[in-house]
Amino acid sequence: MCYVFAYLHRRDLVDRIEGVMMRIAYEVMKKEFERVLKKHGMGEAETVRCASLFAQTSLDGVYSHGLNRFPVFIDYIERGVVKVGAKSSLEGCFGCLERWNGNEGPGNLNAYAAMERAIALAKDTTIGCVALSNTNHWMRAGSYGLLAAQSDCIGILWTNTMPNMPPWGGKEPLLGNNPLVLAIPHGDSPVLVDIAMSMFSYGKMMNYRREGKELPFDGGFDEEGNCTRDPAAILKTLRPLPIGYWKGSGLSLALDLIAATLSGGLTTHEVGKISVEATVSQVFLAINLASLPDRKAIEAKIEETLRALKESEPVEGGSAVHFPGEGTKKTREENLKEGIPVDEDIWKKVCQL
Amino acid sequence: MCYVFAYLHRRDLVDRIEGVMMRIAYEVMKKEFERVLKKHGMGEAETVRCASLFAQTSLDGVYSHGLNRFPVFIDYIERGVVKVGAKSSLEGCFGCLERWNGNEGPGNLNAYAAMERAIALAKDTTIGCVALSNTNHWMRAGSYGLLAAQSDCIGILWTNTMPNMPPWGGKEPLLGNNPLVLAIPHGDSPVLVDIAMSMFSYGKMMNYRREGKELPFDGGFDEEGNCTRDPAAILKTLRPLPIGYWKGSGLSLALDLIAATLSGGLTTHEVGKISVEATVSQVFLAINLASLPDRKAIEAKIEETLRALKESEPVEGGSAVHFPGEGTKKTREENLKEGIPVDEDIWKKVCQL
Fold first, then answer.
1. Is A322 tagged catalytic?
2. Number of other CB atoms surrounding residue B55 within 10 Å
3. E-only strand ranges, chain A
4. Are the C-beta atoms of B341 and B23 separated by less than 8 Å?
5. CB 3.0-4.6 Å disulfide test: which of A132, A207, B145, B349 passes with B181?
C-alpha cells in the first residue's frame, strides 16, 4: 500500500488532540469563548461572531485553529497585537474592488466582514473584491470560503503571512506560506480547498518530531541542503519546502504581491520587519453564481464531476476518493451530536482565562 | 550540493532542442508561420497575431509551445479540431464578468482576445473577467499574463485540459493539469508564474526517459502504487503526481469547476468524453493597478520584495535567487540578437508545411 494514501486518511489526526480527550458541546464551547472575549473588552455583536467562528472551526474538525488557537488569540489581545475594539474601515472604492483597512483588529472579524462585503459587491456586479490591509491572522482560512459558498458565490481568498519559507533557490525565509482558499457552492457540502504554500506547517512538523516519525514526503531541506523527510532537520534549518518546489515558491510570491498591492498593505517582506505576525494583507474575491442564467446546469455540472471522482477507482488499499471539503459535513454533524473533541488541558486553560 | 538546485539551473534545458541546433531570426520565423497559416485559410489580421504569438513564445525561450508545437497546431487545423476561421463571440454580460464562446477557433487567438477584453473591462471597473468556453489549447499560457502585465494589470488566468492526472487517492486520470498563470506588472520584467498542476508534464517525463535519467523529484506512481522518480514507470501507469500531492489535486479540481461554471463550458470530465483535447474552458481575470491611487508606492513595494529575494543567500552551491519570469527578458534579448535556437528537423518540417 502506498504510504501516501495511509497519510491521507490520517490527516484528521495531524491536527489531533494531544492530551486526555474529552468532548464539549458546541454551545458550551461558544458560550465559554463569549465569556472570555467579553472579559477582554470585545463588543457585544463582535463577541458573538468571534466566538461562533472559533467554535465552528473546532466543530468542523479544524482543531488547530479553533479551541487550540484561542489562548494564543487572547494572548495577542492582552499584548495589544490584536486591538480588540478596532473595526475595519473603508479606504476607497475602485469599481468592483474595495480597499479596507483592518486597523489591527481581530483577524477573523475583519476577514468575515471583508468576505461579506465582497459577496455584497458580487451580488451587484457578479464579481466583488475586497482587499484588506493591516489585519491580523484570520484563524481558519476556510471559514470565509464557506461563507462565500453559503451565499452562492465562488470564493477565492488568500492572506500573506510573516516570512517563514525560503524562495526556491534560496536559504533565507523571505516568503510566507500564504494560505489560499478556493470554495465552490455545492449544497451543504461545498468544495473547499484550503491550503498553505508550504508542504507542511511548522505545527505538523513538530507533531511528527514529537512522535519520532518521518514526514510522509520531503518537507524541507537539511543542513547539507538536501531534501529531507526528517522533521527535526527541517525545524533546525527553518527551510520548509514549497508545494511543487519552484511552483509553490512562485505562487507564494505572487499571492503576497497581489495582496499587498491591491490592499495597499504590507508585503511579507515588510511584515518580517515586525517582531510578531501582524498587519498582514488579504484578498477576498466573490463571484456570484446566481447572476448566471444557467444556475441549474452549473449545479448539475459540478455534481457530475464530483460523482465521477467519488465513483472512480481508489489507489491500492484505499477507500473511496473524496473531494476537498467533503468530510466536513460528517465531522460537523458528529461533533454536534457527540460534542467537540478537546484536549482537556487546553479546555481547562480556556475556562481559566 | 542539493540535486534540487542542479535541476533549477537545468530548467531551460528541459524544453531543449533535441536534434541539430541552428538559429533562425525572429522575423524569419514569424514570416514562415504567417505563410503556413495563410495557406491553411487563416484571415489576414488573425495570421499576423497567431504567427506573432507562436514566434514570441520561441523568442522567450518556451520552445515547447512555440515552433515545436506549431506542426501539431497545423495538424489540428487540418483535422478540423481547430476551426481556423472561427472567432469568439459574446454570450452574455454579467457586471464585470463576460462570457465568451470560443467557437472551437484557434486557442491562442481566442485567449488573446479574451485577455484583451478582460483588460478593457478592468480599465472601467478595476476588475474585469472573461470566461471563455468551447476554445482550444492556448499554447503558451504565459503569453496572456504578459499581455495583462504590459497593460498595467495583474493577470490571473487558467485553463482546464483533458483528463490527464488522477485525483488524490484515486487511480483514474479524472483531473486535468490545468495550467495557472499569475502575472504582476514590473517594468519590462514582470513577475510571471506559469505552472501546471502536475509536477512534471508528460513531455518532460518523456525527455527524462529518453535520456535514461531519473526525475529530480517524485513525479508519479508506479504500478505498485508507490511514489517514484522513474519516468518510465509513470508513463506506464499514467499517474503523474499533482504539485503538493492532495493540495494540487484540490487546486486542479477547483480551477476546473470554476472555469466550466463561469464560462458555461465543459469540465475536464466532459472534455474527456471527446477523443482529442478540444472545447476547453478558461478564465481571464485582469485587475487594473492604474485604477489605484498609490501606483508609485505599489511599484516600490514590488521592487523591494524582488530585490530582497535577489540579494538573499542562495542554496549550497547555487548562484543568485531569481523571481519567476526574471530570466525571460535576457533570453528574449539574446534570441533577438543571435536568432532563436531551433531543432533543424522541426524547422525544416515547418518550412515544408
1. no
2. 25
3. 21-24, 89-94, 97-101, 127-135, 153-159, 180-184, 191-195, 220-221, 227-228, 280-288, 340-343
4. yes
5. B145
Q: CA distances (Å), A31 to each of A170, A346, B96, B191, in order?
A: 47, 16, 42, 47
In degrees and rounded to multiples of 5, residue A156 shows phi and psi of -130, 115
Could you tell me the pLDDT band of residue A319, with boundaries at 50, 70 and 90?
confident
Q: Is A217 on the interface with B (CB under 8 A)?
A: yes
Provide mean pLDDT across the span A15-24.
74
pTM here is 0.94
Instruction: Give mean pLDDT, residues A87-98.
Output: 97
Residue B47 has pLDDT above 50, yes or no: yes
Burial code of B207-221, b = ≥16 C-beta within 10 A, e = fewer? bbbeeeeebbbbbbb
- Whether the predicted pLDDT of A108 surpasses 60: yes
**Adjacent-strand bridge partners of A227:** A221
B171 contact partners, CB below 8 Å, separation of at least 6: A312, A313, A314, A315, A316, B239
- What amino acid is encoded at B294 in this protein? D
Residues on chain A touching B2 (C-beta within 8 angstroms) = 221, 224-227
Sign of CA dihedral A124, A129, A133, A135: positive
> Out of A129, A248, A309, whose CB is closest to B127?
A129
Which residues numbered 229-258 in A keep a CB inside 8 Å of some CB on B? 243-251, 253-258
Distance CA A116, CA A108 (A): 12
The pLDDT tens digits for A186-230 are: 999 999 999 999 999 888 898 899 899 999 999 999 999 899 999
Domains of chain B by start residue, with CATH: 11-79+325-353 (1.10.1530.10)
Distance from CA of A95 to the nearest CA of B (A): 4
Question: B161-192 pLDDT, tens per residue?
Answer: 999 999 999 999 999 999 999 999 999 999 99
User: B157 — contact with chain A (CB < 8 Å)?
Assistant: no
Q: What percent of chain B has pLDDT over 90?
A: 88
B311 — contact with chain A (CB < 8 Å)?
no
